[in-house]
Design a protein that fits this description.
Length: 152
């Protein structure tokens, strides 16, 4: 199996069995962002749950409709946050660095691949950067998290 085939399979798996789908409660310190891609109609509502002092992400949940890329990207983002979190959550600075790195790679038109060690399953979205019309689909959840973090 080629790496490209493996990545396609991973994207389909996340879109069929998404992680973190379902918004959950608004209890505690939360922020919610709704993002829409007007080009294709993909929509994501993402809720971030922060620690009481607001310094770290405790949990990310989402709901949305759209193509397999947008749905898989949201699922992969939640998985990545879960993987990178410790008992105190994921520091906001780390979450912001992940968003920035993801954006840079996706805007590179294939010149900067996502590092699997850093981005885990989300590295499967590296190939999306070659298709500018699909970049917005992959970025939707990440932009929603960025919006949440800026307002929380």
């Amino acid at each position: 199996m080629s790496l490209e085939s493996l990545y396609q399979e991973l994207i389909l798996e996340h879109s069929k069995r998404p992680h973190g789908k379902g918004l959950g409660s608004e209890e505690g310190r939360t922020a919610t962002s709704h993002q829409r891609n007007p080009v294709c109609g993909d929509e994501i509502t993402l809720r971030v749950h922060l620690t009481d002092d607001g310094s770290a992400v405790r949990e990310v949940t989402w709901d949305g409709v759209g193509c397999s890329i947008s749905q898989a990207s949201a699922s992969m983002l939640v998985s990545l946050i879960d993987e990178d979190s410790d008992e105190d959550g994921l520091p906001k600075e780390q979450a912001t660095a992940l968003i920035d790195g993801f954006r840079e790679a996706l805007r590179s038109r294939g010149k900067i691949p996502l590092d699997e060690e850093v981005f885990s399953d989300a590295a499967a979205l590296s190939g999306v950067s070659k298709f500018s019309a699909r970049v917005k689909c992959a970025m939707l959840a990440w932009v929603a998290l960025e919006d949440d973090l800026s307002r929380a």
